[in-house]
């Protein structure tokens, strides 16, 4: 097989997959054809529900019980669709392996890394015992896990998300398969970790000549990784071609739409049909929202000595900023950096441990419940998961109306209904949906409901906590546009939290980068991308994939050693000042300097001293 | 680990102390006394009797003396109902009887219940699954005080295979019916519990991931799905064991096994303070020990759990 250089490893012909559900038959995949050659990376791109995962789940024999597949799936020349599980088990895990989106739930939680890896070796190869342990260790080192030897005897929950995905990849590569199927392998990971995992997969592809099927919704990831691309929508392929063809000369409307809707970190105001209105400071109230040295600490139980001890975890560690009326502040950072906690502390949903929040000139912190509730009218929040943040037993009109009933009980039911109808129209929800329940709506529509509910009191400040992160790109672009329109209409201020730096650039006037509860950089939206000063900001920006194969592949990435450290680690906040650690000044708190008017950067060592 | 066990045992003692005080107070404030039967003796005799058993002392002195006896000499006091016997002696003769068939019932219920529940989930919607569902429902709705007489009717009166009661030194024929009566309901709950837990486990993403690695189904069940089921079961085992202990009281009475339950019921009727309290506290001790053992097993099974 190895001498047939261009032969297909996997060939799918006219595949149909349908599911019998209580609501009738659902055709998830309709007549799909594809092939993957040796050492090639095929990108399968599409939004949720396009059937891109189901195609490969079927190939792996992982179809749900109510699913039915017809057509052909050939691994080399063997038809594997309809094969007995016993026969299939000789191929999957050995010649054809798969990694999944969520590395935590995809690893067996009660088995050590070593046990799970040797299990694969013992099933598919003649390697046993010490040799198997040695081989496992070799692969863990190849996927560049830090401290590989110790990882062998750890359980999945003791590893970080990135490490878990590395373990998944190492496990998938153990038998040196010809095909690796990666189903959204980096979607659940932070952007810097994503960059490393993608580099690793690319390297494995080249070194082992492994074919990769990369299933993703992220055009940036595809641009970086894939030789050929197939675009899927509603269970059918709409377009297929090389990376260059798809990106520079898309034929199908849907492909064009996908590329247009994708925000780019190197091109502002791209994803939306309108531009963000530049912020004009003149005549603005400076006492709108002032956050002064806010800290939030959680007590963590740590076993030390005979009895457990409570140690404070500093989720937000002294953050100060101001927000002006009609302005959007983007808050970015990786998971665990405290961005959500900060926003909740500003709204007093989590009372800050220390520091002051002042709102329209009067303090917000330290108010009692009743006084605070009065102010809540002007302070609203939109959450990440639109479905989970709506009451499933309330119609969407009732959900939107609820703030009116709370804050304006004197209003007549008829007036309330009129106002809800007006707001629904404003956020783009059709009138006939008024009596629908959240489960009957799509994700994007539910998020519009969430926004309508936040907007109905015409608040002055809305926090959007990853409000577009769970949505498909096309919907994401629409919601961003909606938020910008609402901002202009109501002179609304936004705190826009996101892990996605490209999205933040589309919508924010100023951007704050958080690292372990502290601001490392804060500047104007263009300034921070054109002239990032802090190594962490530079690293974050360089890690975001750009949906343009030529630019993306030519880009040089800034790599800092190690993973995001635990906030419990006392040296963690000096990660960018190793000189202070060397000088044993472990309590040193890096200053925030104003390097240019409005551009603040935390103290750090020179980038050259930090990179490996 | 050692520290955790010491911690738990220490807490066990605290629980016992509190239970001790509560039961003592509850039983003394209940109307009636050990000596108020149909023919109530004259007051001066009652006073003498109360003095003999120390019941004339203030309640905190009584409780104090009682606890000192238990914790220093394992002495639960004298039985008032059975003259000449003390409570520890009664426990020593009756507990092994109750415990023997309770533990046999428990082991049988757990073993067969788990196996059947898992098989039902693995072959979902097959005849074995339907059988398990029917058994799970039937066993649950049939209380042991109904099941026991039915068993006696069938096996003793009609078929004449098994003795209708007694202990006979623990002969297997005397064990069969108490064990069936005691284990059926428990087995039924375990079947339902394990079936549900296994179905849930089989739908977890790591099972699909294991399948994608070509791991055969029996290994997936055994290595990848069984442990979560065990953890679910373990959480319920402590309360299930308490159910077996209380259930055995009923069975003791019905089959006249001479076990603890018979004395419990008789002692409650006769207001035999010391015997009722002794048996209560002793059962509580057993339950505390079992709970500690289950939590240790839990910790050993689930690497994520770290107890403080």
Automatic annotation (TrEMBL), chain A:
An example of a Gene Ontology BP annotation on this entry? Answer: peptide transport
Any one annotated GO CC term: plasma membrane
**What are the UniProt keywords, alphabetically?**
ATP-binding, Nucleotide-binding, Transport
Cellular localization per UniProt: Cell inner membrane
A Pfam family per the record: oligo_HPY
Molecular function via GO: ATP binding; ATP hydrolysis activity
Instruction: Provide the topology term for how it sits in the membrane.
Output: Peripheral membrane protein
Indicate the segments forming the ABC transporter domain, all copies.
10-259, 294-541
> Matching NCBIfam families, A to Z?
oligo_HPY, PRK10419.1, PRK11308.1
Q: Write out the similarity annotation.
A: Belongs to the ABC transporter superfamily.
Specify the protein name.
Peptide/nickel transport system ATP-binding protein
Organism of provenance: Maritalea mobilis
From TrEMBL, chain B:
What is any Pfam family matched here? BPD_transp_1_N
This protein is called Oligopeptide transport system permease protein
- Taxonomic placement: Bacteria, Pseudomonadati, Pseudomonadota, Alphaproteobacteria, Hyphomicrobiales
Q: Which organism is it from?
A: Maritalea mobilis
Ranges for the ABC transmembrane type-1 domain? 95-298
By sequence similarity, the record places it as follows:
Belongs to the binding-protein-dependent transport system permease family.
Keywords of the record? Cell membrane, Membrane, Transmembrane, Transmembrane helix, Transport
What InterPro entries is this protein classified in? BPD_transp_1_N (IPR045621), MetI-like (IPR000515), MetI-like_sf (IPR035906)
Extract the CDD domains matched here.
Answer: TM_PBP2
Q: How does it sit in the membrane?
A: Multi-pass membrane protein
Q: Where are the transmembrane segments?
A: 9-30, 99-123, 130-155, 175-194, 233-255, 275-301
């Amino acid at each position: 097989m190895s001498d047939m250089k261009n032969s297909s490893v996997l060939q799918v012909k006219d595949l149909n997959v349908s599911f019998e559900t209580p609501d009738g038959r659902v055709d998830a995949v309709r007549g799909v054809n594809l092939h993957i050659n040796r050492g090639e990376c095929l990108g399968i791109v599409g939004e949720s529900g396009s059937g891109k995962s189901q195609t490969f789940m079927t190939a792996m024999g992982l179809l749900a019980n109510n699913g039915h597949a017809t057509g052909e799936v050939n691994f080399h020349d063997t038809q594997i669709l309809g094969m007995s599980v016993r026969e299939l088990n000789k191929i999957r895990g050995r010649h054809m392996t798969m990694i999944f989106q969520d590395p935590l739930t995809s690893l067996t939680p009660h088995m050590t890394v070593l046990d799970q890896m040797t299990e694969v070796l013992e099933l598919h190869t003649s390697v046993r015992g010490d040799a198997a342990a040695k081989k496992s260790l070799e692969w863990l080192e190849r996927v560049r896990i830090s401290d590989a030897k110790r990882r062998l005897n750890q359980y999945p929950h003791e590893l970080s998300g990135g490490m878990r995905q590395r373990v998944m990849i190492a496990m998938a590569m153990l038998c040196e398969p010809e095909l690796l199927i990666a189903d959204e392998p980096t979607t659940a990971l932070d952007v810097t970790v994503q960059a490393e995992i993608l580099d690793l997969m690319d390297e494995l592809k080249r070194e082992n000549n492994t074919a990769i099927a990369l299933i993703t919704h992220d055009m940036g990831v595809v641009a970086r990784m894939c030789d050929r691309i197939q675009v899927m929508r509603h269970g059918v392929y709409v377009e297929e071609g090389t990376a260059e063809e798809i990106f520079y000369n898309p034929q199908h409307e849907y492909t064009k739409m996908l590329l247009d809707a994708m925000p780019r970190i190197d091109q502002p105001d791209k994803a939306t049909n309108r531009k963000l209105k530049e912020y004009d400071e003149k005549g603005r109230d400076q006492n709108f929202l002032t956050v002064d040295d806010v800290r939030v600490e959680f007590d963590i139980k740590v076993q030390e000595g005979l009895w457990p001890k409570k140690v404070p975890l500093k989720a937000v560690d002294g953050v100060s900023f101001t927000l002006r009326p009609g302005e959007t502040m983007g808050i970015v950072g990786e998971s665990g950096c405290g961005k959500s906690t900060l926003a909740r502390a500003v709204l007093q949903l989590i009372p800050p441990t220390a520091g002051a929040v002042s709102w329209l000139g009067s303090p917000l912190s330290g108010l009692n419940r009743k006084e605070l509730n009065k102010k809540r009218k002007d302070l609203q929040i939109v959450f990440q998961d639109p479905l989970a943040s709506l009451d499933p037993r309330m119609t969407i009109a009732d959900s939107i109306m609820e703030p009116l009933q709370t804050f304006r009980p004197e209003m007549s039911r008829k007036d309330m209904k009129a106002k809800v109808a007006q707001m629904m129209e404003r956020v783009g929800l059709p009138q006939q949906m008024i009596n629908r329940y959240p489960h009957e709506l799509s994700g994007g529509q539910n998020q519009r409901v969430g926004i309508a509910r936040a907007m109905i009191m015409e608040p002055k400040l809305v926090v959007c906590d990853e409000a577009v992160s769970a949505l498909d790109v096309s919907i994401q672009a629409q919601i961003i546009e909606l938020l910008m329109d609402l901002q202009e209409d109501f002179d609304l201020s936004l705190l826009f939290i996101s892990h996605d730096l490209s999205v933040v650039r589309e919508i924010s006037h100023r951007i704050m980068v958080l690292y372990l509860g502290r601001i490392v950089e804060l500047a104007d939206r263009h300034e921070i991308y054109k002239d990032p000063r802090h190594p962490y900001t530079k690293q974050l920006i360089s890690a975001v994939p750009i949906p343009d194969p030529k630019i993306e592949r030519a880009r040089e990435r800034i790599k800092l050693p190690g993973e995001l450290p635990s906030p419990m680690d006392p040296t963690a906040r000096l990660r960018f000042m190793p000189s202070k650690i060397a000088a044993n000044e472990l309590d040193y708190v890096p200053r925030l300097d104003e390097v240019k008017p409005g551009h603040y950067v935390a103290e750090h060592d020179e980038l050259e001293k930090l990179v490996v | 680990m050692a520290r955790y066990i010491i911690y738990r045992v220490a807490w066990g003692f605290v629980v016992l102390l509190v239970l001790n005080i509560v039961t003592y107070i509850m039983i003394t404030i209940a109307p009636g006394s050990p000596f108020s039967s149909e023919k109530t003796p004259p007051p001066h005799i009652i006073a003498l009797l109360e003095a003999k058993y120390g019941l004339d002392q203030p309640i905190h002195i009584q409780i104090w003396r009682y606890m000192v006896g238990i914790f220093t000499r394992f002495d639960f006091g004298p039985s008032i109902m059975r003259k000449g016997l003390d409570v520890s002696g009664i426990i020593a003769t009756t507990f092994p009887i109750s415990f023997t068939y309770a533990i046999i019932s428990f082991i049988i219920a757990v073993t067969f219940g788990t196996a059947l529940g898992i098989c039902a989930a693995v072959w979902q919607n097959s005849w074995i699954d339907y059988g398990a569902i029917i058994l799970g429902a039937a066993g649950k709705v049939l209380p042991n005080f109904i099941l026991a007489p039915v068993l006696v009717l069938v096996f003793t009166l009609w078929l004449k295979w098994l003795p209708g009661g007694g202990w006979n030194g623990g002969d297997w024929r005397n064990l069969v019916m108490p064990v069936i009566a005691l284990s059926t309901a428990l087995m039924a709950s375990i079947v339902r519990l394990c079936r549900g837990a296994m179905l849930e486990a089989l739908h977890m993403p790591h099972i699909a991931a294991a399948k994608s690695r070509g791991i055969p189904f029996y290994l997936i069940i055994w290595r990848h799905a069984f442990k979560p089921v065990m953890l679910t079961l373990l959480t319920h085992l402590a309360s299930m064991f308490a159910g077996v202990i209380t259930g055995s009281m009923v069975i003791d009475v019905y089959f006249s096994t001479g076990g603890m339950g018979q004395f419990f019921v008789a002692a409650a009727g006769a207001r035999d303070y010391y015997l009722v309290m002794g048996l209560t506290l002793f059962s509580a001790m057993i339950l505390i020990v079992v709970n500690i053992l289950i939590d240790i097993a839990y910790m050993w099974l689930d690497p994520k759990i770290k107890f403080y």
